[in-house]
Amino acid sequence: MSKINSKEFLDELIFCIEHRDIVKAKALLQFASDSNIDINVQKQALTELGRADEATAFPLLEYLTKIEISDPEVKDALYELILDKAYGNTDLVIKYITQEDKKNQLIYLRAAGDLILTEVAPVLVKIITKSRDIDILLQTIKSLGALRLKESLPVFSALIKNPDSKDSIKHEAIFAIAELAGKEAVDHLYACISGSDDADLIAIEAMAGIQDQNALETLASLLNSSHTHIRDAAIDQFIEIGNKSVPILTKAASNAESDYMVHLITTLGYIGDQAALPGILDIINLQPKDANIRQAAYEALERLPSTKSAITLAQGLQDTVEAVRMSAARAVDKNLSKVLVAGLKNIVRQENSDAENAVAALIDSEADNIFNFLMEEKSFTKLAANHVAAKASPLIKEHFLELLKDKGQNELAEKIAGSTSGKEEKSKEQKDEIFVVDDSKMMLKLYQNKLGKLGYTPTIFQFPEEAITAVSVSKPDLIITDLNMPQINGLQLTKEIRRKYTSQELPILMITTQSDFVASEKGESSSKFNESSRKKSGINKILHKPFRDEELEQNIAALLKKQ
Length: 563
Description:
Structural class: mainly alpha
């Protein structure tokens, strides 16, 4: 069909508008589609409609919404004209949002929110309670949220808690609550976090978006949740928020209990803002009894390089727990200073058990930068040679010997290599391969050393998604995984692996600082992570940090024996 004459079309439309001839104008507007007139004429037609009074314009605009108009600019202009005519005409808006024409209803529902027509709120609530159309419900919830009325909070909360509500409805209701901001909105969002629904993650995201002090404090409290996915989601949000959250987290960490403090410190480390440094140093200086707290603090210091931490890091190398010493060693590698080097030299010159532990931690963690300053120390070379020859794993020994050669210490390298040459001739039978998954580089190095010395072949993964890919290509004999990791936690990793291998085919040992945690899936009530829930999750065994070498060895041997 050829396009109609633009001038004649506009002249006749103007005549109809001036004489308020709605019937004839509708008949004319049926030719206003893309196939009949071009975009410029469509825009001019809207301009003329804009000059009409509301009684004439509304029915014509309603008719236009049913015409085929594809150009985004024309669509936007049409909606802007609807807003212009709807402003101050609440009764007409109510008329259109309660009619059965869905397309038009959606437009005016949107307009009610954009124009913040609070008088329409009772009608919107009625639609929410009665409508079963998902599109209508979503737009109504969004518009009611835009009105920012506190009395709407219970309506949204009821939708979220209703087991029959679809996820899309719950999510829209959560963001509608967040629109209100303030303490009451945060309280409602917090109450919606049940631990057993995907909506938890949306509620946490919405809470983080508010970003006032109350919202951030409530978000920080979620790091104390026994639900892994809730903690991980809160950590992810704090990392995204960044330095604004440091004062809140630091304050919470000042008097938190063990597990909670570990997560707070870890989050501060991930954020990586220097403002967190004094608070973390204060925690270490209080010498907490829980080794997990000390380890978390030193791992955070690795991400917060500063000369102010020199003395504290030197002390960390003398900790009674190996994992803590290695975390301190990793931090040493990123925080070198004259004061720190001097402190380390004083430690190794003692040639006592503290010196042995410090040197072992530096070597096993591959804190290579410090060796530039210690190689000339006879005490260091003596202790290093003893450790590498007698205690280091084959991989660490190989790495350290290469380092010595690179630094011109060929004689020392040959001496160490010679002292262990006989020990390397162990049986050449196939070794059990163990995949280790942990977001901590230090813990990966620790496992690599321990497993190597036990005669296993460790393959390490800092990112769980890489481990999932590797398992799909080649099955190891055992997987060791941390629980708390960003993006994909240990439970989620296990779930993915169990899609391919059963717990008998591929055992999984989970290691965590958590003394207790909850695992539940969508639709289930939360419960303690007992023997039944452990089996259901697909985890073969749980080992809590800090653990003794004997415990690790026994658990691995038991799991491999069952295959």
